[in-house]
């Protein structure tokens, strides 16, 4: 829907699509990945019904997290002034557990990328409830 709106307003010509992959070391492979045919799946980590395993889940997670990481990298490199991941802000997962319909936390990945080049990063969450997973990821810094 967002892509359609951008196209309706004639802005697609001003945008470039980026692709990247999340670093595999971010997730605990032994806990998250189950061997699949051509792909990997992420296991049911939360113990709740809000994070079920489904076909090509690993590919899905790499897609949305890769989008946020690619966006952060282009901003750090100075290639772009603005970067958007329409499927991003999957921010309730922690590095050891899926939670709240979120399997891997793309916000933490992006912030870590920024912190490699910038001393401070501000994260503003406009969701309707507190985002404890991002807070917990940086509680000691």
From TrEMBL:
A Pfam family of this chain: Hist_deacetyl
Catalyzed reactions: N(6)-acetyl-L-lysyl-[histone] + H2O = L-lysyl-[histone] + acetate
Identification of the protein by name: histone deacetylase
Organism of this sequence: Oryza meridionalis
GO molecular function: histone deacetylase activity, hydrolytic mechanism
Annotated family: Belongs to the histone deacetylase family. HD type 1 subfamily.
GO term, biological process aspect, one: epigenetic regulation of gene expression
UniProt entry keywords in alphabetical sequence: Chromatin regulator, Hydrolase
Cofactor(s) needed by this chain: Zn(2+)
Documented EC number(s): 3.5.1.98
Domain named Histone deacetylase: residues: 26-140
The organism's place on the tree of life at top rank: Eukaryota
GO cellular component terms attached to this protein's record: nucleus
InterPro entries: HDAC_I/II, HDACs, His_deacetylse_dom, His_deacetylse_dom_sf, Ureohydrolase_dom_sf
